[in-house]
Predict the structure.
Amino acid sequence: MYKILIADDEAGIRTLVAKYAVFEGHTVVEAADGMEAIELCKNGDVDIAIVDIMMPELDGFSACREIRKFSDVPIIMLSARGEEYDRINGFEIGVDDYVVKPFSPKELMLRVEAIMKRTGRRANSENVSPQKEVVKLGGLTADVSARAVYIDGAPADMTPKEYDLFFYMLRNRNIALSRERLISEVWGYDYFGDDRTLDTHIKLLRRSLGKYAAHIVTLRGVGYRFDSEISAT
């Protein structure tokens, strides 16, 4: 079971989520503002954090940015709004999932379980030393074994999920990938989000790739393809 941080200035929300988390066998620590959330992540050996955007002292986005400076703990962002800007902002700073209020506490616990399972699978796979694999497409270089991307010699700045999406598409380059396949393979078969999450990450990934964004081709009505034959313009 997991140690879950619940950071929200609404005591009722914290109590509700904590009730379901404890029922599922998890332990819970609570924070009423962003500063408390940061300190608990530093000192509390937290397995996953559920962080609200609108909090006093320090908002959720700022708190997550600070947490990412010293920890890769999975983070689920809570918001009373569903605007694309909030989603993009959250994913840019490394948030793993995004849940809009009002939400189902049971679904939230399922999202926690799904994220932790995916994290565990990655951790297990990283214990095996992979063979060196480097893919070069003009000035775009991807060191698959090191999870590193270089654009014209400079390291690309991507979030962990952008790396996951990029390397999955790269390994399956020149193959049409349906939206369902991308979501199930990159986020997991038990992912409870929607297609907008994939679209947002494709947008972020294209931005990170800069002039090499054209390698990611939209297949209308199907999904996407990473085309290795396209040259940067």
